[in-house]
UniProtKB/TrEMBL annotation:
Organism: Pygocentrus nattereri
Entry-linked Pfam families: Integrase_p58_C (PF22938), rve (PF00665)
Segments forming domain Integrase catalytic: 1-129
Protein name: Integrase catalytic domain-containing protein
GO BP: any one term: DNA integration
GO molecular function, one term: nucleic acid binding
Length: 434
């Protein structure tokens, strides 16, 4: 795609090797001329010796965009998305192969007026609007007469003047559109700077899948190579140095001494709970470290029950006098239900019926040392108070920790695979009002 006129070109290829790409580009250059600069990604077919040698022979400067940063070629990436959508629509409507529709789709994209330029790519490249299906239909309705022929010199002069005027207007419109897009983007943008020697986290492709990426590190910044690009040392990777965009970099912060040990798990009451004011939060850009004061121990149920008669009790102070007395009497009537330790009932039992007799056994999920310690304390608490018993069943489901808004964790069991083979019980539940 031409960055100035937004003129697109797409060629279906069976292979994307360096030799195949060079042949396709030479065919394109013989029609539109040799460019001064060609920008590509850092694929191996563009970084090969053959591609670099051909670029030097033709006097073309080869520039490569930052890896995993599609914004470097934003217009091209956006057109690729539109091209795929148009080809999908063409294949669904016509029932043909996608490569047969590439010329027709490109023709429609080239004659369409660009909002950022104010002109179509064909007008900026060839100096006149192309005669497409819509223009033919317009001529049929209006029955336009053929224009009177002009002298060659007059036609050439008017054509040159019209083409230069269109290019100037396109540049002016493009600058206005880019300035508008930049203002919209800068509303939430934050300028970030890094110095040589800073430790950072780097967005790199995952070893298991090249289509996914995650932050790895910490790595050390070697130097700054541009306004938004940095050269970073990656000694544990195949490439010892990488040039990355600032959007792929996060600052790395050393763990605070007060947070070096796992936080103590807070045991929460089951039936009654009280709110605790949120403590200070230490925010550093992408990372949020909650202060230890936010994870203070909460009141137990017995302490809250002892304060029910107090006028300033947070549990019933919002109720009128008569309703407050009724709630307090109801709570006093069943003190064992609202104890400090959760209870379980033996009134009802339910048998889970499954569609297969083959036991379902799942291995435990791997967690870090801190979460493993939290899970161990939770299991010990359940065993100690009789809420769980050791099992030798061939059926097993893994446990996991779900984070809660206050920063603590809730121990849960992942029964999704068990639920998938459970026989649903369609017996209607009675209405509680009846």
């Amino acid at each position: 795609m031409c960055a100035a006129t937004r003129f697109p070109e797409a060629l279906p290829l069976r292979k994307i090797t360096s030799q195949t790409i060079v042949k396709a580009l030479l065919k394109f250059f013989t029609t539109f001329g040799l460019p001064k600069v060609v920008q590509t990604d850092q694929g191996s077919n563009f970084t090969s010796k053959l591609f670099n040698q051909v670029s030097k022979m033709l006097g073309i400067k080869h520039e490569m965009s930052s890896p995993y940063h599609p914004e470097s070629q934003g217009a091209l990436e956006r057109f690729r998305q539109s091209l795929k959508s148009m080809l999908r629509k063409y294949c669904l409507d016509s029932g043909r192969e996608w490569d047969e529709g590439v010329p027709f789709v490109l023709f429609a994209a080239r004659e369409a007026k660009q909002e950022s330029l104010g002109f179509s790519p064909v007008e900026l490249v060839f100096g006149h609007s192309v005669r497409g299906p819509m223009k033919v239909l317009k001529e049929m309705f209006q029955s336009e007469q053929a224009p009177v022929s002009k002298h060659v010199f007059d036609f050439t002069s008017s054509f040159r003047e019209r083409w230069h005027r269109a290019c100037d207007l396109a540049k002016e419109t493009l600058c206005q559109s880019q300035a508008k897009m930049k203002r919209c983007f800068d509303k939430k943008a934050v300028i970030r700077h890094f110095n040589p020697g800073d430790k950072v986290l780097l967005l790199l492709p995952s070893p298991a899948s090249s289509m996914s990426s995650s932050f790895a590190g910490p790595y050390v910044i070697e130097k700054r190579v541009g306004d938004l690009d940095y050269q970073i040392k990656t000694p544990d990777r195949r490439r010892k140095y990488r040039i990355c965009h600032v959007n792929m970099i996060k600052p790395y912060y050393e763990r605070l001494p007060t947070c070096s040990k796992p936080l103590e798990l807070v045991e929460l009451p089951v039936a009654l709970a009280s709110t605790v004011e949120n403590g200070p939060v230490l925010e550093k850009e992408e990372f949020v470290l909650r202060a230890a004061s936010q994870l203070e121990a909460r009141l137990t149920n017995s302490e809250m029950l002892a304060q029910l008669d107090c006028e300033h009790s947070s549990l019933v102070r919002h109720l009128p006098g008569l309703q407050r007395a009724g709630v307090i009497a109801l709570i006093r009537e069943f003190p064992t239900i609202l104890g400090d330790v959760p209870k379980q009932t033996s009134v009802l039992q339910h048998d889970i019926k499954v569609v297969t007799e083959k036991p379902l056994k799942q291995h435990a999920y791997r967690v870090n040392a801190q979460k493993r310690e939290i899970m161990k304390r939770e299991v010990d608490y359940l065993l100690k108070h009789g809420l769980a018993v050791p099992s030798s069943s061939p059926w097993s489901s893994p446990c996991l920790l779900v984070p809660k808004p206050d920063g603590t964790y809730r121990l849960c069991t992942d029964y999704r695979r068990l639920n998938a083979i459970t026989v649903p019980d369609s017996f209607p539940l009675p209405r509680i009002d009846d």
